[in-house]
Structures are given as C-alpha cells and as structure tokens.
Amino acid sequence: MEKGVMFSIHPHWLEMIFNEEKGLEFRNKIISSIKPETKIYFYETKKNNGAGKVVGDAVIIDVTKIEASRKPLYQQCFNYIGYSNQEYAIRFIAVRKYKEPMEISQFEYLNGNTMKYPPQSMVNVRRKN
Fold first, then answer.
1. What is the pLDDT of residues 79-101, one digit of tens each?
2. Buried b vs exposed e over 52-79: b needs ≥16 C-beta within 10 Å?
3. How far apart are CA 29 and CA 38, in angstroms?
4. Which of 34, 59, 62, 71 is deepest in the core (most CB within 10 A)?
5. Could you give the CA distance from residue 129 to residue 12 in angstroms, rounded to a whole number?
6. What DSSP string describes 40-97?
7. Do the Cβ atoms of 127 and 76 come closer than 8 Å?
8. Phi, psi for 31 (deg, rounded to 5)
9. Does residue 111 sit in helix, strand or coil?
10. Closest Cα to residue 55, out of 11, 24, 110, 25?
11. Contact 95/17 with Cβ under 8 angstroms?
12. What is the pLDDT of residues 45-74, one digit of tens each?
C-alpha cells in the first residue's frame, strides 16, 4: 500500500493543475508528512459539478513556508485563487490524471480505517490494493 497525502481541490483548480497551468498549491496549514517525495492524491470536490472522487496524483518536490516579508510577492496569486495570506507554497511534479476516477473508499487512513468522507483540506492516507 502506497502512503501519501490527499488534498481536496475544486474542479477549476484541478483542471489548471492537469493542464500544467498551476504547479503550486497554497495552503494556510500543512501536516508534518508533507515533504519532498510525498505523493499527493487529488480529491476533486463536488462543487460546480465536480466528480467527488480521487482523480489524479502528483509528487511533492518542495514545500516553502512563505516569510512575512515575501507575502506581498504572492498576493496577486492569493487574490487570484480567492485566498489571502497563505503560509505555505507546495510545488509538485509528475502530475497524472486518472483515466477512471477512484472512489474515496479505495483509500484508508493510516490507522487502517477506510475513508468514508473527503478531507476538509488534507489528510494522510494509504491507497488500498
């Protein structure tokens, strides 16, 4: 079973990720397991007719805590994505969109319990075989 982190992302942003228009994900908080070489599973929210399923994955290559002095440089990005004052920038590569989306129940939490609900933001997971 492959460990990783599952992110909930709105369909619009996932489309940009899959089209290689967006290679950074900004988050206000992160969990300690988010580091280079961690796999990200993308859960597409149901908002705006999203799939409500896991639709792809990628590999983290860098996690940067955005220093207060550098936040003005990111402000245009924050405004564009509808957030403000995000604390972390997560860069990823090897983005892959699945031909067939996966049900959330095909993943489990690290304690072995099957996932029934998508994460609010992110959560550690393991893909079931």
1. 666 566 678 889 999 999 999 99
2. ebbbbbbebeebeebeeeeeeebeeeee
3. 16
4. 34
5. 29
6. EEEEEPSGGG--SEEEEEEEEEEEEE--GGGHHHHHHHHHHHT--S--EEEEEEEEEE
7. no
8. -95, 155
9. coil
10. 11
11. yes
12. 998 898 999 999 999 999 988 776 666 666
Residue carrying structure tokens 């489990």: 108
Place of tokens 């940067």: 64
Residue 52 one-letter amino acid: G
Stated pTM of the model: 0.88
pLDDT band at 26 (very low <50, low <70, confident <90, very high): confident
Token duo for residue 59:
């590999």
Could you give the CA distance from residue 86 to residue 65 in angstroms, rounded to a whole number? 9
